[in-house]
Design goal:
The complex is a heterodimer of chains A (about 230) and B (about 525).
Chain A: H1 7-17, E1 33-34, H2 39-44, E2 50-51, E3 54-60, H3 67-79, E4 86-90, E5 95-96, H4 98-103, E6 111-114, H5 119-129, E7 132-138, H6 145-156, E8 160-166, E9 178-184, E10 188-196, E11 202-207, H7 227-232
Parallel strand pairs in A: 3-8, 3-9, 4-6, 4-7, 7-8
Antiparallel strand pairs in A: 1-2, 9-10, 10-11
Helix pairs in contact in A: 5-6
Chain B: E1 48-52, H1 56-59, E2 70-76, E3 79-85, H2 87-92, H3 100-106, E4 111-114, H4 117-131, E5 138-141, E6 145-149, H5 154-157, H6 160-173, E7 179-183, H7 186-194, H8 204-211, H9 223-231, H10 237-241, H11 245-252, H12 254-263, E8 281-290, H13 293-314, E9 316-326, E10 333-343, H14 346-358, E11 366-373, E12 376-378, H15 400-411, E13 416-421, E14 431-434, H16 452-458, E15 462-469, E16 471-473, E17 476-478, E18 484-494, E19 502-510, E20 516-522, E21 529-534
Parallel strand pairs in B: 2-4
Antiparallel strand pairs in B: 1-6, 1-7, 2-3, 5-6, 8-11, 9-10, 9-11, 9-12, 13-14, 15-21, 16-17, 18-19, 19-20, 20-21
Classes of the chains: A alpha/beta (about 230), B alpha+beta (about 525).
């Protein structure tokens, strides 16, 4: 169905597709979701958002290519629910910067950090406990055979589990509901859906920074500046 | 009947009166049972349960059940005498009071162990603690009895017969086989139980008649008094009650007369109430040294279960439990559990101790355990929810502390923490770790400020604990090659001169991998570059 089709025929098609006897592949996965906060990404994901319960694998070449920016709006909306459960971050690679997370809309009272050498154990316990809305884990050396266990734990605890793994494991098979490769672009990131249960594969460009392309910023040496500027501050 | 004043239904405490006949009541609905012989019954002021524990000496030793006859022995003078024998040993003919040699001749494979009076006392106190389920008025009758006043609890437990059954079941669960009697006076109930009879006397008029057949031995009077009574041909309670009071007091002592009055309910029987302890503390010496965590945990589990019973009876929880592991040479290992909310579930305790022990590196085998509770905090057990946790409308708050305690038990208290924002312009000091508190209700909505979107664009999600120095080439910082400057400078000046004033120019740059970084140049000589944070 092309987007520029005449409106009348599109309406006719929509009404035709309402017929109960017609079964469409995409509608097979009736999953509860949480909106990602990006319209383009919502459109590409089955159900229109990140799955509400299940394991997502996010594959990155380096920490900080935009994987957290893509998740933060959804995480923030999860902490705002009336009876929100915890948001757990297991073994994050750096310190989460609390003022920035608060600015992204996360309610910090509903977030806890776990520092551990055994991220997968803590990840599984948090997922299965039913006490967490979302659990994020950074486990560079997660064996693929554990993924199925984690997926089942996430379904049992009705939690959104997000596992960050290196992009090198993209070729391995996985039981995760969703596998996404995140690559940096000039204005944001490109998300490539490697596997999407009940949806399509494909890639989406997300944009979150609007840096001026011309007039490149160059640092000036503080010594060369007039002293009055420094003195006045 | 007509001259009688209007009935208010009030009976003064201490007053006993026969049940009035139902005919005087004018009732629209036939609620009352037809008048029967019950109309003549005298309801006692108090109803006592006497609990006699004939096998306490054996039960206190709590050994694994094995297919050998066992007996408990005690040194009396120069020889060892049997104090208690298990049923298997009794089948061989081993009896209480028998010499050790005679017992071994009857049962050659008899296993004997020394009597442990402190353990017997502990077991008795444990039963008294458990008995608070039935009534708050519990008294110890050392060495092997308990009395409970249960008049007020009869209705709750559905009558005397059902209450007695419930007490028996409760004792079985605690691993003890009791004999339980009910009577209007504590001594009568106890004497009945000691005689091995499960009396059920709920009518004070029937008391004397029911107990008259009991042997005098059950009253545990001094042996010399009993002997003299036997010489005059008095063997049981009925016979002694027929003796003239004055003469009895003169010949056999006032003590005994007073006891008879208490036995028949003529005199009040005042007893010291057993007071529940303010804290739980229990020591256990192990029979063999344990090294494996699983073995230690299984030895610890009964103690934790006892703690759970104790908390259940007191309707309290604890926020801290400590467990001391005793070794042969090295000092004791201390293992402390802390809870976010008052906890009382022994299974939960055992699970957390399991995690704690697996993280523990014991330098020596364990030969003794001790469990101590912290201060008791009153807590009402949470109602079970209809919904599963996480389901729509399901209760989730109660589960959160368990998860955090579980993680902390294994990873340490500091490994799990929350975050909070501090008022500071220096990024390193603008956040801090926060203690995780049980949430109540919805948190206050944060006011959306004007600078939020600016902040989102220009502050990274990741911060390095310490700014990391960047190498410099041609006056420009490097990280995996040259950096591309996207935005800046953004000056931060903060701090008082004494605490180390900082002045920094912040830039957002992109490295060759496409990762956006937050770096700064120190505005003090030597104008070095540092990496401060990484954008998500």
């Amino acid at each position: 169905m092309s987007a520029n089709a005449p409106e009348t025929s599109s309406d006719g098609l929509e009404s035709l597709l309402q017929h109960p006897a017609i079964w469409r592949g995409r509608s097979a996965a009736q999953v509860s979701v949480v909106p990602t906060g990006f319209a383009a990404l919502d459109a590409a994901l089955p159900g229109g958002g990140w799955p509400r319960a299940g394991l997502i694998e996010i594959l990155v070449s380096h920490i900080g290519v935009g994987e957290l920016n893509a998740l933060l709006p959804a995480l923030a909306s999860l902490t705002h629910q009336a009876s929100a459960r915890w948001n757990a971050w297991i073994a994050p690679p750096f310190e989460p910067f609390a003022p920035a997370l608060a600015a992204h809309g996360l309610i910090l009272e509903r977030l806890f950090i776990v520092r551990t050498e055994q991220p997968l154990w803590a990840f599984e316990q948090s997922l299965i406990s039913g006490a967490c809305e979302a659990v994020l884990a950074w486990a560079p050396r997660a064996p693929s055979r554990d993924i199925r266990r984690l997926q089942l734990a996430a379904e049992k605890g009705r939690a959104l589990g997000v596992l960050f793994r290196p992009v090198a494991v993209a070729k391995e098979s996985s039981n995760a509901v969703l596998r996404v490769i995140v690559e940096p672009t000039d204005q944001g990131a490109r998300l490539t859906l490697l596997k999407s249960r009940g949806g399509h594969r494909g890639s989406v460009d997300l944009c979150w920074s609007h840096y001026p392309t011309q007039g490149r910023v160059m640092p000036s040496h503080p010594r060369k500046r007039s002293d009055s500027v420094i003195g006045s501050l | 009947m007509s001259s009688r004043p209007i009935r208010t239904g009030l009976v003064r405490p201490g007053e006993t009166r026969p049940r009035e006949s139902r005919e005087t009541q004018v009732s629209v609905f036939p609620l009352a049972p037809p008048p029967s012989q019950q109309a003549l019954a005298f309801e006692p002021r108090e109803l006592w349960v006497g609990l006699h524990l004939p096998w306490l000496e054996i039960e206190a030793l709590q050994q694994t059940v094995r297919e050998v006859p066992r007996a408990v022995v005690e040194m009396q003078g120069q020889t060892q005498f049997i104090v208690a024998a298990c049923e298997r040993a009794q089948r061989f003919g081993v009896r209480r009071g028998m010499g050790m040699a005679a017992a071994l001749a009857l049962a050659p494979n008899l296993e004997t162990c020394a009597r442990d009076v402190t353990r017997e006392r502990q077991l008795l106190e444990r039963l008294a603690t458990r008995a608070h389920r039935f009534t708050p008025r519990v008294s110890l009758v050392p060495p092997d009895g308990l009395v409970l006043e249960v008049k007020g609890s009869l209705h709750l437990f559905g009558g005397a017969e059902k209450l007695r059954r419930a007490i028996e079941v409760d004792c079985f669960e605690a691993g003890v086989k009791p004999i339980v009697s009910l009577a209007p006076s504590p001594l009568a109930a106890l004497a009945g139980a000691r005689a091995g009879k499960s009396l059920l006397i709920t009518d004070s008029a029937r008391l004397v008649g029911e107990i008259s057949a009991l042997k005098l031995v059950t009253l545990r009077w001094p042996a010399e008094v009993l002997e003299r009574l036997q010489k005059v041909g008095v063997y049981n309670v009925g016979q002694v009650l027929r003796l003239p009071r004055a003469g009895f007091a003169r010949r056999f002592g006032r003590e005994q007369l007073a006891e008879l009055d208490r036995l028949t309910g003529r005199d009040a029987d005042l007893r010291d109430q057993f007071r529940l302890r303010e804290r739980f503390r229990r020591k256990e010496d192990l029979l063999q040294e344990l090294e494996h965590h699983d073995a230690i945990l299984s030895a610890l589990t009964p103690l934790l279960e006892e703690l759970g019973e104790f908390l259940k009876v007191r309707q309290c929880g604890v926020t801290q439990i400590s467990c001391l592991l005793k070794h042969r040479r090295v000092p004791r290992t201390r293992c402390v559990l802390r809870f976010a909310e008052p906890a009382a579930n022994p299974k939960h305790f055992a699970k957390l101790f399991g995690e704690k022990l697996s993280a523990l590196n014991l330098s020596e085998a364990v030969r003794g355990l001790e469990v101590r509770s912290g201060d008791l905090v009153s807590c009402t057990p949470a109602d079970a929810s209809l919904w599963q946790p996480g389901e729509h409308g399901g209760e989730t708050r109660g589960h959160a502390p368990e998860l955090i305690e579980h993680l902390r038990a294994r990873l340490g208290h500091e490994a799990v923490y929350g975050l909070r924002v501090l008022e500071s312009h220096r990024p390193e000091t603008s956040w801090a770790t926060a203690e995780l508190a049980a949430r109540t209700g919805k948190p206050a909505e944060r006011v959306v400020e004007d600078h939020v979107s600016w902040f989102v664009q220009r502050r990274p999600a990741w911060l390095l604990r310490e700014p990391q120095p960047l190498i410099e080439r041609n006056g420009l910082p490097q990280r995996y090659g040259a950096l591309r400057f996207l935005e800046g400078p953004d000056r931060v000046e903060a701090g008082m001169a004494l605490q180390g004033r900082v002045a920094r120019d912040y830039y957002i740059v992109r490295d060759s991998h496409g990762v956006r970084l937050w770096i700064f140049r120190d505005l003090k000589s030597p104008y070095a570059w540092y990496l401060q944070g990484i954008f998500g």
